[in-house]
Design brief:
Strand order of the largest sheet: 2-3-4-1-5-6-7
Number of helices: 26
CATH class of the domain at 10-84 and 611-766: Alpha Beta
Radius of gyration: 30 Å
CATH topology of the domain at 10-84 and 611-766: Rossmann fold
Distance between the termini: 27 Å
Largest sheet: 7 strands, mixed
Structural class: mainly alpha
Strand content: 5-15%
Helix content: 40-55%
Length: 791
């Protein structure tokens, strides 16, 4: 809706309001309240827009940056809209990023480290553990692709005439036809192309997004340090924070090499085991040599992952060409040699049962569990050094999220294996008497069997939270009616407002929900691992000799879990396909990425790219360029996730520009979500430092908002940062000013509250008067001009 801009004194000079939208995105027309908008700077992905009537507003300025007399724009801030939604939900292809969800969650773990002072080695250990955990997820994904292509399709189904007889696409591999490709080694060599292609696809997507996102250079730091600038800068204010090009390139090379080595290990392991049993000296020696080379390659990959973390204190423009080129290239050569080795003629080799090496999933699960536990120990050590009551889960948010990433990876890989096995077996059940193939590894079936009891725990937690919310709603009724003393009480109206507030308060229960989920998942995952390794049988068969109740429960859990994991994966893929065709569903997925991909790729290079590495430089360049050119005053106005981008951009500004910028946030998750879950970067000390560095800052919030809240900053500035909680709804009942029932706005339409315009005007009044613009021909900020080509 259009907003009325209050007038200002004539000597105020040019003023700009830079609007930044939140999650889900919007249009410049909606942001500016005008159907006629013009793109000032940017491209189709992210751009700054103005109303058509404001395009020339600050093009011609008089001495000292003053707007000439008689200009109709004099005395009011010119609104601009920065639209960045296409960075995360611009086209249907990005909906496929949903399949990279475990990688995205693992990447968040790096940024969830607790606040600490000193303990440099402990902080580095935390980063190394997270990067190793991310590497294990890549190995898990490629191992699942190997399980489907090599084990289920090429080894089991193609080796069984009953399975391959009705599948024409497997005909040339079938043992029944006895062709050149019918030998197990050659079947496996052909099937290895599938996981190798998956690895190549991940490399391609990561490289493509790396060129578009990580290669956006931030605003260069000034040559002369400012004497008033604090020597210890928050992490988000460091020059290299939003430029992770070098690290992502190294990690991409390491993960790509790990993918190729995983395929080669699955292929070489099967062939080498046969050669050792067959006692063929030449092939046996070749197999041992290849296994040794693969082990050496794995050691190099782990060394590259552990060797270097992020470089944030400076703009690191180097690239490690030796690593980024030679490492994946060498792994690909080893894979090619392994394919030739496996395709060597072995007439006596017959495939039966499962492919040897199915315990690899158990080793991966055990490694991931150990990494999560080690990460928890390190996080607790860091938290105890600088305890903060507002930090989520006492610093254990990162390890809990890591456990969630592992669980998501297990569910997705297990779901694919289960569904492909059922499809290949036809009417039978894999591993059962009526089945024609042995099916996926036993551990995947055990992991599926623990899903029903996990859901029971989560349902009990949901019931507890529902009761708690109902009680909280009842307790709020009296306080709500007291906020509207002039209105007649209405039970229905009061209950509705109380219900919205109680539901909004559930956000603060997220640490408990995640903690219970992570702990339960760890316990049940350990039980599944022990059960699979000790019994070597699926749960139904392992419980066959026990009491009838136990045996029936085990069989039911196995069947229900397998069904749930399969249906869940199908729904996952279906949602992605729907998002490809349905813009509304695509926008919903875009909201997920808006929250999850704010952070740079610090641990997993195959995660969806960080849009802030494009958005933050965009905003920083625009603010610094406009203030440097005009000497005017600027209010950056951010809603929801836009407030996080606004804060990160203000941190990156040079001191001379930051003095002319005010920060207005509303519906902001800066403290409620980011401060609690990412304390090292948005904790209390960081937000207080931001309040001290920016000239003035005000934050608007509502009790009905499930996302935004107060920033809880203690500031010496008057009137402080947080406003009083805004009334929502604006009117309790019908009034002369509100003849129709006022809606409960929650997280939206903060501009509809009269307090919004008052606070923005007050911020502009607190900014210093217009300064003489600095026009330096050699400066990249002094060469731009207003209008369409500025920025």
């Amino acid at each position: 809706m259009p907003r009325v801009t209050p007038p200002r004194d004539d000597d105020g000079g040019p003023a700009l309001e830079l609007l930044v939208h939140g999650v889900g995105g919007t249009t410049p027309q909606d942001m500016l309240g005008d159907p006629r908008t013009v793109r000032i700077t940017g491209d189709e992905t992210a751009a700054v827009y103005r109303r058509a009537e404001d395009v020339e507003a600050d093009r011609a300025t008089g001495p000292g940056g003053q707007v000439p007399d008689g200009d109709e724009t004099r005395g009011r801030p010119v609104p601009e809209a920065y639209v960045w939604c296409n960075l995360t939900s611009g086209n249907g292809a990005r909906a496929l990023w949903l399949l990279l969800l475990p990688f995205m969650v693992a990447n968040l773990v790096h940024w969830m480290q607790p606040t600490t002072r000193g303990l440099t080695r402990t902080v580095r250990t935390y980063g190394v553990l997270v990067r190793l955990l991310a590497l294990s997820l890549t190995v898990l994904l490629i191992a699942a692709a190997c399980e489907v292509a090599l084990d289920l399709a090429a080894w089991q189904c193609a080796g069984s005439p009953r399975c391959s007889g009705d599948k024409s696409w497997l005909g040339f591999l079938s043992t029944e036809r006895g062709g050149w490709w019918s030998q197990p080694g050659r079947r496996l060599a052909v099937a290895a192309l599938v996981p190798a292609a998956v690895t190549g696809l991940l490399w391609y997507l990561s490289n493509r997004t790396w060129s578009a996102y990580e290669s956006q250079r931030p605003l260069p730091a000034g040559a002369e340090p400012d004497p008033d600038e604090p020597t210890a800068r928050p992490a988000l204010g460091m020059p290299g924070f939003w430029y992770g090009r070098r690290l992502v390139a190294r990690l991409r090379a390491a993960h790509t090499a790990a993918g190729f080595l995983t395929v080669a290990a699955a292929l070489a392991g099967a062939a080498a085991r046969h050669d050792r049993r067959a006692a063929v000296p030449l092939l046996e020696a070749t197999g041992r040599l290849l296994e040794g080379a693969l082990l050496a390659g794995a050691v190099v990959v782990v060394w590259v992952v552990c060797r270097r973390g992020r470089s944030e204190s400076r703009l690191d423009v180097k690239l490690d060409r030796a690593v980024t080129t030679l490492l994946p290239g060498s792994a690909l050569v080893l894979l090619a040699l392994t394919v030739l080795y496996a395709a060597w003629s072995r007439p006596g080799w017959v495939s039966a049962g499962r492919l040897p090496g199915d315990r690899a999933f158990g080793v991966i699960a055990l490694a991931e569990g150990g990494l999560v536990v080690a990460l928890a120990v390190v996080a607790l050590t860091m938290y105890r050094r600088v305890p903060d009551a507002r930090t989520a889960m006492r610093g254990l948010g990162g390890p809990a999220t890591a456990m969630l990433a592992c669980a998501l990876g297990g569910v997705m890989t297990g779901g694919v294996a289960q569904r492909v096995a059922d499809w290949l077996d036809g009417a039978g059940t894999p591993g059962e008497p009526g089945g024609v193939i042995a099916g996926p590894p036993v551990l995947l079936t055990w992991q599926a069997a623990v899903i029903p009891p996990l859901l029971v725990v989560l349902l009990a937690l949901g019931a507890f939270l529902a009761v708690h919310t109902w009680r909280a709603r009842r307790a709020m009724a009296g306080g709500i009616e007291a906020e509207y003393p002039d209105a007649d009480p209405d039970v229905v109206r009061t209950r509705r407002i109380a219900r919205v507030r109680a539901m909004a308060a559930l956000t603060d229960r997220a640490p408990a929900i995640l903690g219970v989920t992570a702990a339960t998942t760890l316990v049940f995952g350990a039980a599944a691992l022990v059960g699979a390794w000790v019994t070597g049988k699926v749960p139904g068969r392992a419980a066959a000799g026990t009491a009838d109740f136990v045996a029936s429960a085990a069989q039911a859990a196995q069947a229900l879990g397998s069904w749930l994991i399969g249906v869940g994966f199908i729904l996952f893929v279906t949602w992605g396909r729907r998002a490809y065709r349905d813009p509304a569903a695509r926008r919903t997925i875009g909201i997920l990425w808006d929250v999850g991909t704010f952070w740079p790729r610090a641990s997993h290079p195959f995660a969806p790219p960080c849009y802030a590495e494009r958005a933050v430089p965009d905003l920083t360049w625009r603010m610094a360029g406009w203030t440097d050119r005009t000497g005017g005053r600027l209010v950056i106005s951010g809603h929801s996730q836009g407030s996080v981008l606004a804060a990160a951009s203000v941190w990156q500004l040079p001191p001379r520009a930051r003095r002319r910028v005010a920060l207005l946030t509303y519906g902001s998750p800066l403290e409620r979500l980011y401060g609690r879950w990412f304390p090292a970067f948005f904790g209390t000390a960081c937000l207080e430092a931001l309040s001290d560095e920016v000239h003035c800052w005000r934050n608007l919030w509502r009790r009905t908002d499930p996302i935004g809240g107060p920033v809880r900053v203690k500031s010496d500035q008057a009137p402080g940062v947080d406003t009083e909680a805004l009334k929502d709804p604006l009117a309790y009942g019908r009034t002369r000013e509100q003849p129709l029932p006022a809606p409960v706005l929650g997280h939206s339409d903060y501009q509809a509250d009269p307090a919004f315009d008052r606070e923005r005007t007050a911020l502009l009044d607190r900014l210093p008067p217009c300064a003489v613009p600095r026009q330096r021909p050699d400066s990249p900020l002094g060469q731009g001009s207003s209008g369409r080509s500025s920025g």
